[in-house]
Design a protein that fits this description.
With 469 residues, the protein is an alpha/beta fold. The protein folds into three domains: 230 residues, Aldehyde Dehydrogenase, Chain A, domain 1 (3-Layer(aba) Sandwich); 182 residues, Aldehyde Dehydrogenase, Chain A, domain 2 (3-Layer(aba) Sandwich); 30 residues, no CATH class. Helix content is 43%, strand content 17%. The strands form four sheets. The protein has a seven-stranded mixed beta sheet, sandwiched between helices. It has a six-stranded mixed beta sheet with strand order 5-4-3-6-7-17, sandwiched between helices. It has a three-stranded antiparallel beta sheet with strand order 1-2-18. Helix 8 links the parallel strand 6 and strand 7. Helix 3 packs antiparallel against helix 6. The structure holds nicotinamide-adenine-dinucleotide.
């Protein structure tokens, strides 16, 4: 954490400075955007050691996991953006209807202005920088507010970003609730918030004051459904990997598993084996496994352990904020663990009577950020696709969708709105301006749609409408 957070008036000055630069056109040239993206890339590579240490200090993240899910992930995203930027920036010619001819129509992506990015603590580097890549690619100025709950990563960003990115147009503002509140009182041209729904509502209210568009990347309970058509051993390995990555503190982590009694009975021992094969028998001493971010989250999670029968794991150590990968069975549908986003390494197994029961269980709740189906039955897959709504749906491969840059990443309903990644990030931070042009001569409007409405014009209009009927 920096020694002192910025005051309200310092925050105001930062925002107006950045806005002034945007007004001066600093951020618009494609060359500027590329330079920023390359600088961000260099920062990540040159300081990877510092970022790895910060992520370890904040979340006990291993170096390999930090590379896979934060540092390397970001470099990949920057490279994808640099490779496609020229094409995304190009104005897109579209057809003008025959009745308007001669005319031309184009869609021109223009930057929105100054954007505010508010990031959470669970992937504190990636979730602060990934939206920034889109904002810069689209030619915006930006303020990044990292999470105060990942203080080492927040401090590393605040220290390093100004040495690489154009200080006139990009600023990192550290802080917690008071600083974010001060930021939200300012006028932005877009706010990109990642975090929980309670704060999402605060952000939405503040944004409404200035009619600022927002993207809300929220969370929720992402279900897994598994049936008898897949190998329980293979499925268990993927479920375990996706669930216990970052000690379960992943927005798209599988939250719980739905299956019939027989399927769950077959799955449980394979979950145990998969946990042991990924993390060994003495998980606490394994550097590949992370820690819970803070004491409050730790006690909340430990509280869930009594809501079911511990089938695997369950040991914990408050001093280290260590919670073993845990599988819970026999949980009641109305228990807290089944009604709050778990966001930690506890996986409840919930029995359903059949596919219909599983589908109605999911559709009867808030729309999740993702739904994960393990089934090789085409009818089952089709029913999940048609009958449920979620930010994403993956078959046999939880969380991998977010690594495909051509796929929009975002929620629906309670799991958020708006999306990003790849070109979608560029579009999120752009205004698609309609540009239409028609020569003054020949005058095709006077003789057709302008008064006085002669018989001939009336016949023309009615004839045209008649064709539409
Ligand atoms: P958090 O506590 O770090 O909060 C997120 C941000 O909101 C922080 O920058 C924080 O300073 C700010 N904030 C907190 N209280 C505020 C207030 N009263 N007013 C203004 N700003 C405030 O992170 P979190 O919310 O605990 O993150 C976990 C949640 O985020 C989970 O629900 C998870 O599913 C979700 N999440 C979603 C995604 C996604 O991409 N959809 C990614 C990661 C996390």
């Amino acid at each position: 954490m920096s020694e002192q957070y910025a005051t309200e008036s310092a925050i105001s000055t930062i925002v107006s400075g950045v806005r002034h630069s945007f007004g001066q056109g600093v951020t618009r040239p494609e060359a500027w955007r590329r330079k920023q993206l390359l600088a961000l890339r260099s920062m990540l590579i040159r300081h990877e050691g510092e970022f790895e240490s910060a992520l370890h200090a904040d979340l006990g993240k291993s170096g390999v996991e930090a590379q896979l899910t934060e540092i390397g992930f970001m470099v990949g995203e920057i490279d994808h953006t640099l490779a496609h930027l020229a094409q995304w920036i190009k104005p897109r010619r579209v057809a003008a209807p025959l009745a308007l001819q001669p005319a031309s129509a184009r869609i021109v992506a223009e930057p929105l202005g100054v954007v505010l990015i508010i990031a959470p603590w669970n992937y504190p580097l990636m979730l602060a920088l990934s939206p920034l890549v889109g904002a810069l690619a689209a030619g915006n100025a930006a303020i990044v507010k990292p999470s105060e709950l990942a203080p080492a990563t927040s401090a590393a960003l605040a220290r390093l970003v100004p040495g690489y990115l154009d200080r006139r147009a990009v600023a990192v503002v550290e802080g917690g609730v008071p600083e974010t509140t001060a930021l939200l009182a300012e006028r932005f041209d877009h706010i990109f918030y990642t975090g929980n729904g309670r704060v999402g509502r605060i952000v939405a209210r503040a944004a409404a004051e200035h009619l600022t568009p927002i993207t809300l990347e929220l969370g929720g309970k992402s279900p897994v459904y598994i049936d008898e058509t897949v190998s329980a051993a293979d499925a268990a390995k993927r479920i375990v990997w996706a669930k216990y990555l970052n000690a379960g503190q992943t927005c798209v982590a599988p939250d719980y598993v739905l299956g019939t009694r027989e399927v769950l009975a077959r799955l449980a021992p394979h979950l145990r084996d998969a946990i042991h094969s990924l993390y060994g028998n003495a998980v606490q001493g394994n550097p590949d496994y992370g820690r819970i971010v803070n004491d409050a989250q730790f006690s909340r999670l430990v509280g869930y352990l009594s809501e079911g029968t511990i089938t695997v794991g369950g040991s914990h150590d408050a001093a280290e904020r260590f919670l073993e990968p845990t599988v819970l069975s026999g949980v009641a549908r109305d228990s807290a663990v089944m009604n709050e986003e778990i966001f930690g390494p506890i996986l409840p197994l919930v029995q359903v009577s059949d596919l219909d029961d599983a589908l109605s269980f999911v559709t009867g709740r808030d729309k999740p950020l993702a739904a994960y189906v393990f089934s090789d039955d085409r009818t089952v897959r089709a029913r999940w696709e048609r009958e449920t709504s979620s930010g994403a749906l993956t078959f046999n491969a939880p969380i991998l969708h977010l690594t495909a840059p051509e796929l929009p990443f975002g929620g629906v309903g309670a799991s958020g709105h708006g999306a990003y990644h790849g070109e979608r990030s560029f579009l999120t931070f752009s205004h698609e301006k309609a540009v239409f042009s028609k020569p003054l001569h020949p005058d095709t409007l006077g003789p057709t749609v302008m008064p006085p409405f002669t018989r001939a014009k009336e016949a023309l209009v009615r004839g045209w409408l008649g064709k539409l009927r």
